[in-house]
Amino acid sequence: MSRQLILLASLVLLAGCSSGPYEVASVSGRVTLKGAPMAGVAVMFQPIAKDGNPNPGPGSYGITDADGRYSLKLVGKESRGAVVGKHQVRITDHDDTKQDPSDDRPIKRKKREVPVPVKYNQITPLLEWNVPAKGSTDADFDLTP
After folding, report:
1. What average pLDDT does the chain have?
2. pTM above 0.85, yes or no
């Protein structure tokens, strides 16, 4: 009886350690606007559900650096990458302004000189990207106004 309990407990622990029933691959790229790098924008990938699989896995996100480059990280996880398969992609302005919770004054947010056009984050159809099993280092998006 105790062997069965140990085996059952081991299986539960192993199941809890898995990353899910989805495959993840590394994804990075660059965001530009008419060829110029877009620093400080958020790039969000959301896997598209397939027939018979309404939950294909978590989304991923990355924030561009000064050269417009980003690497994706799974939402809610510590691992890098994105779920393998087709994704909807949103690109939005990222606000990294932080406020002390004890400060009740309104935050003055600085506006971007050139904001991300709304067609990349509010209007459908959104961009799409297929994450291959081997990953990708060229998930590049050259935006237009």
Report:
1. 80
2. no
Task: Quote the longest CA-to-CA distance of the chain.
Answer: 68
Token couple for 90:
């949103």
Going along the chain from its start, the domains and CATH numbers come out as 22-143 (2.60.40)
Average pLDDT over residues 95-112: 59
Going from the C-alpha of 52 to that of each of 17, 131, 133, the distances in angstroms are: 24, 20, 20
Helix (H, G, I), strand (E, B) or coil at 110: coil
What is the pLDDT, as a whole number, of residue 97? 59
DSSP bridge pairs for 62: 43
Q: Residue 129: beta bridge partners?
A: 87
Cα(142)–Cα(36) distance, integer angstroms: 8
